[in-house]
Write a structure and sequence with these properties.
The protein is built from 7 helices and 13 strands. The strands form 2 sheets. Strands 1-5-6-7-8-10-9 form a 7-stranded mixed beta sheet. The longest helix has 20 residues.
């Protein structure tokens, strides 16, 4: 079980207020990961296992070893959110992060809300009591990171409106702040994917993309849900799917079958991975760290530099 001291540390370190207030951490390495859940038996009917738990453990351990300034998780931390037993691996991970005073910034995925959404939300909030289900912002150096809740089916009209008004307001505020050079937006469901298991999310496209694509400082949109790595470029902006934290890998449509032009390797299945980001005064350097097929460690699977 997690400890009360961790809850106090999380509340003090994150300051995840649904407002323009921005938490500040140092300008060194930032890590993003997503979809670290254990495979469910029902998922195994249509998708094959591939040492998923072992790969996820490698990623979680390596993320701790990176000693990043901040770690962001884009949802589906666990397989079944309402089950306390399903949280044991993540609880150990959180304890290790706390021991190195590494701030952790999560958002809800669909698996946290699976079957019994109220109980799943309660388990999530017990660990992250400062979490705001209608969006929050963290500032890392000269980069503002906006984390949104894309579980629209679990938000009522008031919550949807609250998040949307806040999101548009914080985009404008960050755009006007001369000390902010770039904005990164993240949520669980991806607006674009060539996954053959899950679809591109229309609500994310309709609610989140208009503000993202029209704000000059927005540079990168990150999401998970599709268990693969994908990179798209649209309207001068970069979009990445980073759902390779350990869930059953999704086959991708590629070549002439792909709905969207993927700028990464073009294969039908991508290896497990996490993303590290190094902001500087002039750019963001991104690196996808992929688990080697033999589970012997990591290799650089993809690199990108985004200029401000």
């Amino acid at each position: 079980m997690y400890k009360l001291s961790y809850l106090i540390w999380f509340s003090l370190s994150c300051s995840l207020f649904n407002s323009i207030a921005i938490s500040k951490v140092s300008s060194e390495k930032i890590i993003f990961l997503s979809d670290t859940q254990d495979p469910l038996w029902i998922e195994k009917i249509i998708l094959s296992e591939n040492f998923n738990i072992e790969a996820s453990n490698l990623i979680l351990n390596q993320v701790v070893e990176e000693r990043a300034s901040a770690v962001f998780h884009l949802g589906d931390l666990v397989s079944i959110g309402f089950d306390p037993e399903a949280w044991h691996r993540i609880d150990r991970f959180l304890t290790h992060l706390k021991s190195y005073q590494i701030p952790f910034y999560p958002t809800l995925g669909n698996h946290e809300l699976l079957l019994f959404p109220e109980q799943g939300t309660n388990e999530f909030m017990r660990r992250f009591p400062a979490y705001q289900p209608t969006g929050y912002t963290v500032r890392v150096g000269r980069v503002a990171i906006i984390i949104l809740n894309s579980n629209f089916g679990y938000l009522d009209d008031l919550q949807k409106n609250k998040q949307q008004v806040w999101y548009e307001h914080v985009l404008d505020s960050c755009q006007q702040d001369s000390s902010i050079r770039a904005i990164i937006v993240g949520c669980h469901h991806s607006p674009f994917t060539n996954s053959m298991i899950v679809a591109s999310n229309r609500d994310v496209q309709n609610y989140f993309l208009p503000g993202f694509t029209t704000t000059p400082k927005t540079k990168l949109f990150l999401a998970g849900h599709a268990h693969a790595f994908e990179h798209f470029h649209d309207q001068g902006k970069d979009f990445m799917v980073i759902g390779g934290g350990g869930g059953l890998q999704h086959p991708l449509a590629f070549g002439n079958r792909a709905e969207f032009r993927d700028l990464s390797d073009g294969s039908a299945k991508r290896q497990f991975h996490y993303l590290s980001i190094m902001p500087s005064d002039s750019s963001i350097a991104l690196m996808i760290h992929m688990v080697k097929a033999d589970l012997s460690g990591f290799e650089v699977g993809y690199q990108l530099e985004i200029l401000y």
